[in-house]
Design a protein that fits this description.
- Three copies of one chain form a homotrimer.
- By secondary structure, the first copy, chain A, is of the alpha/beta class.
- Chain A has two domains: 193 residues, NAD(P)-binding Rossmann-like Domain (Rossmann fold); 259 residues, no CATH class.
- Helices cover 57% and strands 8% of the residues of chain A.
- In chain A, α3 links the parallel β1 and β2.
- In chain A, α11 packs antiparallel against α13 and α11 packs parallel to α19.
- The longest helix of chain A is centred in the middle third of the chain and has 30 residues.
- Chains in contact: A-B, A-C, B-C.
Chain lengths: 470, 470, 470
């Protein structure tokens, strides 16, 4: 602790400004950590406690008083206590009139109470200005000083002046305040730190299911089948060869699933003849996690690319290539060059590379800081035009890969076609429907609907009426 | 619609706060979509319409009144109508005194009117507080709820209090308000959604021209020439081999073009003897899109890397390698190892990899969120020092690639040198000029000029005068 | 200059709003550049100068007056002068009462003066509102108009209204103001532009030392040893083969060093029995630059991946593979396939790819814009869970690479083991200690301590006391 006090930088800050006093109610871990941090940043801290005598554990430099005494010392009171103990505040309610109460509490579950803790507090203490803040910062982060994670502190409250005072404190602690508006936002702010990638769940489970299915499918065709028929030990294929089939298939299917909900939504709007009716919940949720679906697909595509590029350094591949050469030399066979094979092999590779390149481009533009730089028109251009081009290139890549062997009966094993054939089902469906949707006659109606036109409108004049409006 | 109303999360929000009323003028698509969104987020919405009877199409829960009746209901009026219809507002001008008018309009063309719509509105309604907002959000995005694109809403206005009220509404709708200052910013905000990558156009067209030129050039040398002289069918080279010449050439040329304007600007400043005269427009524009030029170059370099890495898995390459081995075995030739060839081959590859690595680093630091983290000194270090190092490495990579064959007459076909020789012209020029510019005598003068010194200043004392100033 | 004045866009802005007047004290380079920029953006600029007659060099359109005359013209005065000249302001102190003084100054060294320039100014001029701003923007950037670097202008000051007026000017110049709170932040803002990657220094020097050491080590084993014993010229190995040993070793060691301080901190907390005592300075600094350590490690891993992928296109590798084939053919040896070799080779490659994939994922989530999107719980999940998984995969990759040869005496040269054996020391140590720390008995104590429990607390009730607090 003494270390901190001799920190020249902090001393310099202290000396140039008279200290502001902040009161913290509650001497738990978070209250303590916040207090230490505030002391380090030049604030004078007063703790409010039930038993002010038990002060041995509190940071040196901080005063500890009873709740009501502490409350007199400052007009900003940070409540570092659980919601269950808010009632006691009503006992000292007259002290709090006009004061700023900072609610830092979190709950154990999402939507645990009907109203947010901060709103509950505001109801209990109508005379004070309740501000929600600091709940997204952990005590551990404050304590260790290693705020590698987000430095963002969401702040909301109904009183603008009180909010700005709290935001200034947040800044003084080296954190970034983000004004989230009125206390109505408190519920969302309280739910935020409890989330664990809510939008990534569907994409994650979906890709896990796809991966497992195709892994088993390929293992049956390429490991079990040869073992049953020719007792060959192909188990080493489980490590690279089969994953390198599973990954591109999963990537292509997920990429197609990014564009499927848009196509379904268009059909639904055409069928209903209006855009002002909400989509079913599953479609809504699907549309909201399209970005995550696409990024998971990009991950699999990335793995596919590296798995493909390491092919020539694998022991098995080197052995096989050597074998081919030796066989040719010993058999004195002619090493004939087939232009069509060269074309197919190069075309398949080139389509894959270009598809991957556009895919990476889509991924980069979905980075928050990049997508904030583009306007709606540019975003649509990238995600819609370039997105479909990516899907077309990747589908073509898979089609050319199949090449002449595509669906030939010799490729069937136990009546199972090659895995890549299954991979083509969803993307081809999406592309065909999209192709129908962009045909002039269909597209015209859809555009009308999306501009607000409704097929079953009772008063035909209303369209005219709205003509002059945006 | 009923779905929305039973949304528990939203109900919870509604219940905890009494509803604020917002008035929307205009029942067009955007007005309707915004109204629905506001209803969902707990606002009470009143539409103002020319024909309030035609209300069947409006969202349930919203009231529809005549313009003047609606205006009485709220002190915030959102004008969802075209600029052409703003005049009618003057008829009910007395109602609007002191009210907040939110201009959400967009135009069809950039700089369509001499003044922005919001400024025009402010002139029409001098007694009200005009705020520009929401114009960057599309009705479709509001409606479908899938705001994958930018959630940023640019807000500007001359009255600070009015601006903050509108910003609170923006936050309540789950969007991010960005304060752009006074109404002077409205013109830029209105132009923003009409742009389609204005800074990317020059780099895009430039790279397209370079690509096409070098593609044709290489096709003539590597496909048409062998066909004419030996009837060999080399068309498969069009797919990977030739693009893998075109991409690195384009990348290197574009990278050099990133540094060329800086070099030209330095020469211009040396020639003029001052930095206080503006550069010609073309140079200004060129300098402003250097970042985009560099990123396009990085894209081509990325393609070049993958096209190179897939070389060993191409059918043609495998066939050729097999051929060499078979020929050697059959001819019983000695497979001698040349240390100098190993050196050249490894050096060329290593230079390329290091150049690409630095190039990727430059690309990452040009991401908005990363470049916001570095200060001016760090940015200059990366973009200038590391940038030139990248250019030197990539140029050296190309030079070593040429190796012994460089400009040897045997490589000429129809008097055309190899394409990579042409690729070296611009980068070598830039590097030579830069080398001259950093020589002490020249560098000293340039540094003086950039610190504000002027060669032809009339009063020699003025330099002295400014000495104490920044 | 005339060019600027005929700029239609700017004229349009000027016409729609009456011009605000800003006063700039000091006609040095920065003052001039800022003045030109403000004139271009529609402001009326008055320069204050010691010798107003020397006005020939000032931008056309700007007035030049003596300091006191100029100060009368505007209530915003930008001080573009060095701190040493602030004293003269006291002579005209009565003029400045209530005015906004904008301090744009920078120092030559970090922490050059005990208090920041802005705070010093505020002490000199108690009646005026001092705002710190613009110091992070360079004159060159303002002049050339090419603000590719950060457009962020840090603004701080004690008067909220004055701060907002300055922030509006910042926005009008096309820059992004960032409110940093009160004038206490001025010191940090003044130090900011003088920094050159302070957090990157330790990782950089560390990796440089590791690289040089392992490069020499490998050179001794693979170039000097064969030269001494068999006069083989292996110098070409210095270009790719040896770097491709040095890079992965450095990457793995650095990655382990990212997790080592966390493990040391845990041991320290267990030993001390409390989390409320500060870590030693070296540990603090180490923990603060973990992110940078990890990113440098990722850079080396990236280089390792590309160096590995180019293996098959190297001259030396092609020659060696051809040699093996020819030898086999000529010796009529059987080309036997070893399943265990295939397993080992594939496993080693697959582990490396998956490790690299997770590593890239960690790198992406450490981008500022991405890490701002995740909450503390998600960040911990990624950096801790995924981070350790990456370390485990990469360590396993190295172990399997060693395979059967691991520590076999035949691999020793001059008693030196293979370099990768040394690379395993740190990661294995970290993993073993971590494994001990997550064992239930140890983990339980540690969790208690991290929740605020203290082993040597005097009053045992205090824990009870804090139970209800956060």
């Amino acid at each position: 602790m003494e270390k901190t006090c001799t920190d020249t930088h902090l001393l310099a800050m202290n000396s140039s400004e008279k200290q502001e006093t902040v009161c913290i109610f509650g001497t738990g871990d978070f209250g303590k950590s916040l207090g230490i941090k505030m002391l380090q940043c030049g604030y004078s801290v007063v703790f409010g406690s039930r038993n002010p005598q038990m002060s041995s554990l509190l940071p040196r430099g901080a005063e500890v008083l009873s709740y009501s005494e502490a409350a007199w010392k400052s007009d900003i009171i940070i409540l570092a206590m659980h919601r269950e103990h808010y009632d006691f505040l009503t006992e000292i309610i007259e002290i709090h009139n006009g004061k700023i109460l900072v609610d830092v509490s979190n709950n154990l579950k999402i939507n645990q109470y009907p109203e947010s803790n901060a709103e509950y507090l505001a109801q209990l203490m109508p005379g004070s200005h309740v501000i929600k803040a600091f709940n997204t910062i952990s005590a551990w982060a404050l304590q260790s000083g290693t705020l590698d994670a987000s430095r963002q502190v969401f702040v909301c409250g109904n009183d603008s002046k009180a909010k700005h005072r709290v935001m200034d404190i947040v800044r003084a602690l080296g954190l970034t305040p983000l004004d989230q508006g009125s206390l109505m936002a408190a519920k969302e702010i309280e739910n935020y730190p409890l989330q664990l990638f809510p939008m990534w769940r569907l994409p994650f489970y979906l890709s896990a299911v796809l991966c497992v299915f195709f892994f088993v499918y390929c293992a049956v065709r390429e490991v079990i089948y040869p073992y049953v028929y020719s007792k060959t030990d192909n188990t080493f294929r489980l490590v690279i060869s089969i994953p390198n089939r599973v990954f591109p298939i999963t990537a292509l299917t997920l990429l197609a699933l990014v564009y499927l909900p848009g196509v379904i939504a268009a059909i639904l709007q055409l069928y209903r003849g209006t855009k002002y009716r909400r989509f079913p919940d599953w479609l809504d949720h699907w549309m909201l996690c399209r970005k995550q679906l696409g990024l998971v697909a990009l991950g699999f595509a990335f793995l596919h690319v590296i798995y493909t590029l390491v092919i020539p350094i694998r022991y098995y591949v080197r052995w096989r290539l050597r074998n081919i050469t030796i066989t040719q030399v010993l058999a004195n066979k002619d090493n004939t060059f087939s232009t069509s094979s060269a074309w197919l092999s190069d075309l398949y590779v080139a389509l894959g590379i270009l598809g991957f390149f556009l895919f990476v481009l889509l991924g980069i533009t979905s980075l928050p800081s990049v997508s904030n730089m583009v306007n709606w028109r540019e975003f649509r251009f990238i995600q819609s035009k370039l997105g479909y081009l990516t899907l077309i290139l990747c589908t073509a890549h898979t089609l050319v890969y199949g090449g002449k062997r595509f669906l030939s009966p010799s490729i069937l094993r136990w009546y199972l076609p090659s895995a890549y054939v299954l991979a083509l089902i969803v993307p081809c469906t999406v592309l065909v429907i999209k192709f129908i949707l962009i045909m002039p006659c269909v597209d015209k109606t859809l555009t009308h609907i999306r501009q607000g036109w409704e097929r079953n409108s009772k008063c035909s004049k209303s369209a005219l009426n709205g003509k002059s409006d945006l």
